[in-house]
Structures are given as C-alpha cells and as structure tokens.
Amino acid sequence: MSKCIMFQGTCSDAGKSLITAAFCRIFKQDGLKPIPFKSQNMALNSYITDEGLEMGRAQVFQAEAAGMKPQVCMNPILLKPSSDRKSQVIINGKVYKNMNAREYHEFKPELAGMIREIYEDISSKHDVVVIEGAGSPAEINLRDKDIVNMGMAEIADAPVILIGDIDRGGVFASLAGTIMLLTEEERKRVKGVIINKFRGDKTILEPGIKMLEDIIKIPVLGVIPYTYLKLEDEDSLSSSFNNKRSKSKPIDIAVIYLPHISNFTDFNMFETQEDVNLRYVRRGESIGETDMVIIPGSKNTIADLMYLKESGLDIEIHKLQKEGKLIWGVCGGYQMLGQKIYDPEGVEGEYKECYGLGLLNMETTFAEEKVTTQVIGKINENLPGFLKELGGKAVKGYEIHMGVSKKTGPCQELLTIENSLGETVNYLEGCINEEGNVIGSYMHGIFDEAEFLRGLLNIIRREKNLEDVQSEVGSYAEFKEGEYDKLAAVVRENMDMAAVYEILGLKENSNAI
After folding, report:
1. Are 488 and 26 in contact (CB under 8 A)?
2. Which of 45, 144, 224, 243 has its CA 20 to 30 A from that of 352?
C-alpha cells in the first residue's frame, strides 16, 4: 500500500486544487510516482478521457502535473449542478441520474464501498496518493455521510493538511474555527496547516502564526504567496474573471458569463496570447465594443438562453453580428445560436421548446443519452468570412452534450471529424452562417490548437489593419508544463518540505517507500 496525504480547505476556492497539483509535481520531481484523487467533485468544468468517460478538470490538471494521463479513477464521482437544487450525478465517468441534494445525501453511503475499492486499487499501484477534499470539513450537518473530506481521510487513513485563504480575510478565525468544529479523532488527523494566497511582508504575519499555533496546537507548515499562474480553475468561483478592456492589447474577446457556465477552460489559451484581452461579461454588465463574442458551454442551455434574452445581451449580440464582429458558440452556446431548441423528454426541465437567437440555420433536440467523446478533425475548405483562410487546419478536442443539432436552412458545416475515441470516422460537425461571422461547434478545446488559434487571431488583426504576429506559445500543453514547474517551485520554496515528508513517513527527496 502506498503513502498518502490529503489537502482540505476551510472553504471552497481556498486553493486545494492547485496545492494538490503542486505536490503532484513536487513528488514527481523528487522521483516518486504520485497520483491525484478526489472521491467527489462538484464542478461544471469536465473533461473526456481517452475511453470516453467524463471527469472533473481539477483532477485532469493534477494528473498532468503528476506526468500522467487523466483517468476517471482519479475522480469517480462528479456532480454537475443543473439548478440550485439538482445535479447530474456522474459515477465512474457515466451519467447515473439527476438527483436533488437530499436524495444524493441519502445515496452517499452506497458509494462509500465503491470509493474504498477504487482508492485501494490506485494506492496499490502508486507511491503516493495526493488526495483533495471538497468545500470544508467543518460542514457538520454533512458529517454523518461524508465521503470526500474527513470521511475520505478515514477511508484512506490519510494525514491531513488544512489550507486557509488569507486573501479572503479572516484566515486565523477560519483555520481555528474549522479545527474547533472537528471531532477529536478528526483533529488528530490534521498534521499541519497552510496559509495560502498571502500578499505582503511575511514578517508582519509571524506573530499571528505563533498565536494560531498556540491555539490549535498544529504547526503552520507554509505561507504560500499569491502567485498569478495561467492554470485552470476548478469552478466558477475564481475571482480572476473580469470585464475590463485593455488599451495595450489590440484584440478584445468577450465571453458571456452564463449563470450555468461550463468548461470555461476552453478559453485559457487566449490568455497566453500577448495581444489578446480576454474578459467575462457578468450579469448586469454590457458587452460593449469587442472583436469577438463567445457564448460558452452551459449545464442548462434553455435557462441560460432565457437569461440572455431577459438581460438584453441578445440584443447586443445581434447588433455586434450586424456590425460584422465574430460570434462563436461552444456546445450549449452553439445550441443557443440556432432557431429553436426542443426538449421533449424534459432533460433540462419544464420547458419543452424555446426560440434560439436565430443567428444560425439549425435547431437542436435534447436526448437522454449523453455524447462523451474525444475527437480529431479539420476545418472545412471554402468557408466564408473569418475562416476562409483556415481551411484544412487540424483541430482536436472533446464533445460533452445531450443534444443533436441539424440544419434548417442555408449554412455550411464547420468541421470534418476524422477520428472519435481512436476510431476512424467521417462526419460533418458545427455550423457557420453565410456571412461567415457566426460560428458554432460542439468541440470543446478547439482554441487550444496553437496554429488554428493564431491563424484566427491574425485574421482579426487584419480586420483592424494590424500586421500578423507569431505566437510565443508553441502548444498549450507545453505552456502548462512550464506553469506546473513554476507552481511547484513556489510551493516548495515556501513550505517546510522536511515536515511534509515526515508526515508521509518518507525521507525528503527520496523515493524509498
């Protein structure tokens, strides 16, 4: 059986996902064979594995940091909220059913045995299992059926390091309060704490650290500085989303921040481009002047479509389209661009049909079976408008959707898909209007392809009478490798690594189990 260590937080977005990723990279650098694990993840950002199974993206970038391919065993339970009260429950990569909070809470004990089996299997094959918790272990109303925080720590017999977010304020109170609300047995598991996202002079913090240690009788193992890294966020709680325009960056791209936005990691590659200002338009804000509007994926397409219309953003989108600006819809955003959406089986809710934005001659019908696949294809030749010069460019990504879209009038398909889950295929996908400035596709990750993205951005530059530029980023995968190393370096420099290895029961920088 391998060693294990678990990172829990005093709250959501305390930095658990990134700290877990950092230690996956650190252990890999130190010659160990680590694997990330999170028994239950609640997020609208998901990924499709090589086998066509769906998992949370947090464990994907943690796997990348560990030098591994993502596997659904790293995240056996994924909850995708579709409303304030219901979530789609995904078990071992496949949709199980939609459940409300009470139904799922009562169902959790049935999942504990499965989690134990999966954990024991991966533990037998790796040196260190780096486990991430969810939310806070101090949610005492959920303690009796917990399978992701201290309940998971008990299954794995894992030592716990607790993370507090000082950037939110009140970090000493949140750390001390969390420890106070744990049972005596749970407190024994907590071997150290981390103060995360610190800004300023650490010496000013030292008296508070000493007082905290005196109160909780647990050492502070590290103070991690606030570090801006272009890595994925687990969910939409990130404070990095902004709607500010940049005068220094000539290309402005506005992503509509939908209430049920999903897979916003589709747009991370834009942030690596020096000439691009990527911003998110939230509720109550306007799009304003921009070069490209992106309507992202959604876990509740019809509800988010109604939000666009109620907020007046649909009027802005139509205006920008008439001005010749580029409008791109991804997955649910693609469905919204069509003429109508039908939901005869009530997959998303009570509305059986609704009118779309009417910018593409296509319509969508929801089905109960979810499409989950990795795909490789190319941009079709002789497309109008923005893509006229990009015919034949290779693209790849993945699809996650419960709708089937078909043409209802003049338009051209965007892509020819040539490979699905490793099998040779040949079918058309996506849609582009006759003017060539409204584009939709089910393919997530299409913008991660550096050659295609830079080609598209240079076409936008030419529309603005600017010269082409070359991307400094060869590929998004290569770029992330550098960011993982930066993350590991920051954490290693600001942690008591000898204490971490002692907690693991290993010698520092040793792979001796």
Report:
1. yes
2. 45
List, run by run, the mean pLDDT of 10-residue segments along the chain (513 residues). 92 93 97 97 91 94 96 96 86 94 93 96 96 94 93 97 94 96 96 95 93 97 89 54 78 96 91 93 93 96 95 97 97 97 84 93 91 95 94 95 91 95 95 96 94 95 94 83 95 97 83 45
What string of DSSP letters covers 209-276?
HHHHHHHH---EEEEEEP-------SSTT-TT------SS-SEEEEEE--TTEE-GGGGGGGGG-TTE
Output the pTM of the full model: 0.88
Specify whether the CB–CB gap between 36 and 59 falls below 8 A. yes
CA distance linking residue 229 with residue 190, whole number of Å: 28
Separation CA 85–CA 79 (nearest Å): 12
Q: Which amino acid is at 71?
A: Q
DSSP string, 310-337: HHTHHHHHHHHHHTT-EEEEETHHHHHH
How far is residue 251's CA from residue 462's CA, in Å, rounded to a whole number?
11
What are the C-alpha distances in Å from 108 to residues 19, 33, 376? 26, 30, 37
Provide the annotated active-site residues: 331, 444
- Print the SS3 string covering 402-430: EEEEEECCCCECCEEEEEECCEEEEEEEC
